[in-house]
Amino acid sequence: MKVPFTPWPAELAAEYRKQGYWLDLPLSDILERQVQAKRDAIAVICESRQVSYSQLDIWSDRLANYLQLRGLQSGDRALVQLPNRVEFYVCFFALLKIGVVPVNALFNHGRMDLFAYANQVQPKLLIVSSRHSLFKTREFCDQLCQAVPSISEIVVEGDSPFGVGLNTILSCSASYDAPSIYRPKPTAADEVAFFQLSGGSTGTPKLIPRTHNDYYYSIRQSVAVCQWNSSTRYLCALPAAHNFPLSSPGALGAFYAGGCVVLAPDPSPASCFKLIAAHQVNWAALVPPAVILWLEFAPQHQEALRSLQYLQVGGARLSEHVAKRVEPELGVHLQQVFGMAEGLVNYTRLSDPLALRLRAQGRPMSPADEIRVVDEAGLAVPPGQTGALLTRGPYTVRGYFAAPNHNALAFDDEGFYHTGDLVTVLEDGSLLVSGRIKDQINRGGEKIAAQEIENELMAHPQVRLAALLSVADEVMGEKSCAVLVCHAPVPKTIELRKYLRSRGVADFKIPDRFMFVDALPLTAVGKVDKKRLQSQLTLSASADR
Ligand code: J2J
Question: Domain named AMP-binding enzyme C-terminal: which ranges (predicted)?
Answer without folding.
Answer: 452-527
